[in-house]
Amino acid sequence: MKKLIIVLLSLVMAVSLSACSGGSEAEPEEGSEQTVAESVFTGNYVVSADYVKENLDNILLYDARGEEAAAEGTIAQAVPVAWQYFATCEDGATGDANWGCILDPERLSARLGEKGFDKDKEIVIFAAADQGWGDDGRIAWELIAAGYTNVKIVDGGYNALVAAGLETSNGGAEPVPVEVTIESIDQTHVINTDELVSDYDQYKIVDVRADEEYNGEVLYGESKGGHLPGAIHIPFVSLFDENGMLKSNEELTAIFEEAGLEKDDKIVTYCTAGIRSAFMQLIMEDCGYGNVKNYDESFYRWSAVQDVE
Fold first, then answer.
1. Do both 217 and 165 map to the same domain?
2. Out of 39, 74, 214, 251, which could bridge 70 as a Cys pair, Cβ 3.0 to 4.6 Å?
């Protein structure tokens, strides 16, 4: 009889422990819905591929990888564009003053109108995520400076859109021209070489290029290798996880903080030609860093006229 009571008590305790371990206070398992939700990047300038799929009829979609890449395959409704078409790349050569910067309002108005960038529509841009150069971020950054108020980039880029099941084609869509008038360029998140030299000590400088570029290799015709004096190195690719998706806001903020950046700091981002650094500026802003400027003349110009480390 005593043995029977002991066995029954053991069974009751086992059931109780099992119930406690499966209760509502238990930690979520790796890969659970809660964990996945917390890992998604959110912000004013970023949308998911699913958002694009659900709103395709109400947005203007652009492939920032350009016409050559789009010819090999793009989203059927996307108009291919290249950042260089909206910049001063025709006005001289790399390293020249004002090369690769935002076009003057008159030329920019004409080219944006030609490509159908309607200010009254939501504009969504994608590129190649971690496999590219941040071309989507560069064009979005420029549109915002030109006064566009509803501009987004796609988390995960082209691959994410394909994975979401959007229709593809070779070449994409033709633009529908519209009338565009750009009165001026907002300089809030823009800085040139002269301004940076004048106020250098006021800023924390962030180099978003690859390790080999930061460490001195000349890969793209720069005047010399190295980096801006005292520059903090946060590579563009560090923004993404192993699947090519943006890391969560919390993860990215931790990276920025570990690098010594605080949210009220005055920050300048740069790369080789102001492309990856424009993408970085938007992502940092979405993470709460409101005082970030993109140096669009970037290392091409700095290395030609200033000292480097």
1. no
2. 74
Specify whether 165 is located in the same domain as 207: no
Burial of residue 50 (number of CB atoms within 10 Å: 0-12, 13-18, 19+): middle
- Residue 144's nearest CA partner among 187, 113, 110 is 187
Containing structural domain, residue 140: 46-169
Contact between 145 and 102 (Cβ < 8 Å): yes
Q: Do residues 279 and 236 touch, judged by C-beta distance below 8 A?
A: yes
Q: Is the pTM of this model over 0.85?
A: yes
Those residues with Cβ within 8 angstroms of residue 171's Cβ, 6 or more apart along the chain or in another chain:
67, 70, 71, 74, 80
Shared domain check, 214 and 268: yes
Q: Identify residue 100 by its one-letter amino acid code.
A: G
**Pick from 278, 211, 266: nearest CA to 238:** 211
Higher pLDDT among residues 36 and 194, named by residue: 194
Q: Is residue 4 part of a domain?
A: no
Residues 6+ apart with CB under 8 A from 226: 216, 303, 308, 309
pLDDT digits (tens, 9 = 90+) for 145-200: 999 999 999 999 999 999 999 999 999 999 999 999 999 999 999 999 999 999 99
Quote the tokens at residue 35.
């964990």
Question: If we measure between CA atoms, which residue out of 88, 87, 40, 85 comes closest to residue 63?
Answer: 85
What local confidence, expressed as pLDDT, does residue 10 receive?
Answer: 43
